[in-house]
Amino acid sequence: MTTPASIETPTIFSSALAARFDKLVTLYPVRRSALIPMLLYAQDELGYITDAAIEEIAQRIGITPLEVRNVLSYYSLLRTKPVGKYHVQVCTNISCMLRGGNELFEHCKEHLGIGHKETTPDGVFSLEEVECIGACSWAPAVQVNYDFHDNLTADAVDAVLDQYRKQAGK
Amino acid sequence: MPTLVSHPEEVKIVSSRFGKGATDIERYLELDGYQAARTAVEKGADWIIAEMKASGLRGRGGAGFPTGMKWSFVPKQSEKPKYVLVNGDESEPGTCKDHLILLHDPHTVIEGTIIAGLAIGAKMGFIYLRGEYRYLLTIMEKAIADAYAKGFLGKGIFGSQVDFDIISHTGAGAYEVGEESALMESLEGKRGIPRIKPPFPAVVGLYGGPTVINNAETIATVPHVLRMSGEAYAKIGSERNGGTRLFCLSGHVERPGVYELPMGYNLKKMIYEIGGGIRGGRQLKAVVPGGSSTPVLLPNEIDIGMDFDQVGKAGSMLGSGGVVVLDETVCMVEFALRTIKFYQHESCGWCIPCREGTDWLKKTLTRFHSGAGVAKDIDNIRYLAENMLGKTFCPLGDAAAMPTIAFVKKFRQEFEDHLNGKPCAYAKKPAQQPVLV
After folding, report:
1. Has residue A100 been placed in a domain?
2. Are residues B286 and B386 in the same domain?
3. Domain limits at B278?
4. Closest CA to B288 of B257, B258, B311, B256
5. pLDDT in tens, chain B (437 residues)
6. CA-CA distances (angstroms) from residue B217 to A170, B60, B140, B166, B232?
7. Which of A156, A169, B330, B355 has its CA 20 to 30 A from that of B283?
8. Range of A52's domain?
9. Cβ B96–A39 below 8 Å, yes or no?
């Protein structure tokens, strides 16, 4: 952990993210408006939103940790438990379903050997069936972390997953 | 990267810069970018609103409210600051148009936001993107920074006396936040729960100030309207439905994609000519014309013009522009179940008819589709849905109920075919898995 450059109180975040948070809370007419982006950015850095992250974000905004938890429990992208390095999100909503989204999800389960909201033992992949991700005209679609993969087939998704596996060095 | 499609029948206005590198501000300027905002700074609010009213542009988020009229509702004098809020929380199943706008032409959204700000006298605008669109947020952040560097944002925009700031903002996964008052709650750092209306956002909105909230496509259209004049824009569309619209064709068509077509374009033609007809030469079974919340249309109901009024007359809604095409291999009970599963997942839980109604519908449809349904379930499904209509603070309850009622009404026989433990007639057909070999 590097020493935070911009704030005096200790931070659990990298100095770059801490600096970003310092700025974010001043941008809006009220500090609290920065809450949801802060939670998401914290999750991006830590993998999930830890108790320590909740404490620090609450302090930075000036609300209680309970209020932070109340908000974070509402949003489907925010999580308080770790997932795999590559979080595979398969859309099975109507447009994807019509073009094989359900079958693609089943295929991913088999390929990865895990089910909905589960993580592989090596921690490389986790899998989730998700609602519409806004790629309906390029269905079926999958999002791995924030990256979109469109017009997928079973073979194509295998190639995508293999690519990520290689990146993870496994 | 999403595939771009093209068809000779298209009228490319909002999509005119797609695939032309317009995320780069210099390129955007070459392509007539920021001209409309410059003119708007000179000519002022009254001119902007008059042009917008003349354009006949109606909200592209789904409600179809006339944009010029919406802007004119904002009080001229206000003790609290006024705000412009761009809704890029695109989440209606079947809809992916804002995705393309934000990917290919972020500056037009910025330019539209500036113009909306000038029209209502706001000094600050927010562009709210859904959390899943992170790569688009990065593109937007860069575009905003470039606009600041050019002096198009910040103090004295375009060398005038007017100040205007824009903040891009990310959500974190919630369909409900696409509803305007829930979006404002979310932007204030709270759970996305709808507010009681009235007061409407134009009077009491974000941070209690008068707020105009528009869909990203609506905002992206604004600079084009001013550049070509409201009157010219209106002429492209049909009566009381100005201009063009991005239609997201998905499902069982040969050529899915986002196509920009004049308002009032024939739906049948859209499916068979633009979309290349039904995949594999199969028969058309049904069309969801405007995102998953709009009532389904039968093949004999699609010879209609795609504008707010004509689709409304046909018993459905133009909605968000997501045209989902279903062929003969689809089990309508399963489709109804998948639709309601989404709304059950996304109901914020604030209003009881929606929270309980979507959950009961999901449970009943799940049981029904598995073959454990009883005859009275069919009427119960409809009864449950009908009792949600108009009984919630926001339209999510209606969005779940309306398509459900239509599925039961129009495909009752198919529901009856699932009775007495009969296996789903569609379950075994290999055609259901055309993609995976």
Report:
1. yes
2. no
3. 244-327
4. B311
5. 899 999 999 999 999 999 999 999 999 999 999 999 999 999 999 999 999 999 999 999 999 999 999 999 999 999 999 999 999 999 999 999 999 999 999 999 999 999 999 999 999 999 999 999 999 999 999 999 999 999 999 999 999 999 999 999 999 999 999 999 999 999 999 999 999 999 999 999 999 999 999 999 999 999 999 999 999 999 999 999 999 999 999 999 999 999 999 999 999 999 999 999 999 999 999 999 999 999 999 999 999 999 999 999 999 999 999 999 999 999 999 999 999 999 999 999 999 999 999 999 999 999 998 888 899 999 999 999 999 999 999 999 999 999 999 999 999 999 999 988 777 888 754 433 333 33
6. 43, 6, 15, 17, 19
7. A156
8. 15-72
9. no
> Which residue in B92, B96, B153, B288 has the most chain A C-beta atoms within 10 A of its own C-beta, making it the best mutation to test that interface?
B96
Residue type present at position A8: E
Residue at B149 is within a domain:
yes
Is A157 found in the same domain as A107?
A: yes
pTM over 0.90: yes
Kindly report the CATH number assigned to the domain that includes residue B379: 1.20.1440.230
User: Number of folded domains in chain A?
Assistant: 2
Query: Do A107 and A160 have their domain in common?
Result: yes
The torsion angles phi and psi of B128, rounded to 5 degrees, stand at -100, 115
Is residue B1 domain-resident? no
Q: Shortest CB distance from A134 goes to which of B99, B167, B187?
A: B99
DSSP string, B342-371: HHHHH--S-SHHHHHHHHHHHHHHHHIIII
Structural contact between residues A157 and A111, judged by C-beta atoms closer than 8 angstroms: yes
Which amino acid makes up residue A64?
A: T
Phi, psi of B246 (to 5 degrees): -85, 115
Q: Are residues B282 and B385 in the same domain?
A: no
Across the interface, whether the CB atoms of B99 and A135 are under 8 A apart is answered yes
Chain A residues whose beta carbon lies within 8 Å of the beta carbon of residue B90:
134
Q: Are B318 and B64 in contact (CB under 8 A)?
A: yes
Q: Using CA atoms, how far apart are residues B1 and A155, in angstroms rounded to an integer? A: 18
Same domain for B307 and B163? no
Instruction: Write the DSSP string, B203-226.
Output: TS-GGGS-EEEEEHHHHHHHHHHH
- Please state the domain count of chain B: 3
C-beta atoms of B93 and A132 within 8 A: yes
Query: Which chain A residues are Cβ-neighbours of B5 within 8 angstroms?
Result: 137
At how many degrees (to 10) do helices B97-104 and B106-120 cross? 100
Mutate to test the interface with B, among A43, A137, A153, A160 (most CBs of B within 10 A): A137
Length of chain A: 170
The interface predicted TM-score (ipTM) is 0.94
Tell me: do A46 and A114 sit in the same domain. Answer: no
Distances (CA, A) of B25 to A2, B21, B78, B188, B322: 35, 9, 34, 30, 30
Cβ separation A138–B256 shorter than 8 A: yes
| Amino acid sitting at position B239 | E
Which residue from B minimizes the CA distance to A25?
B189
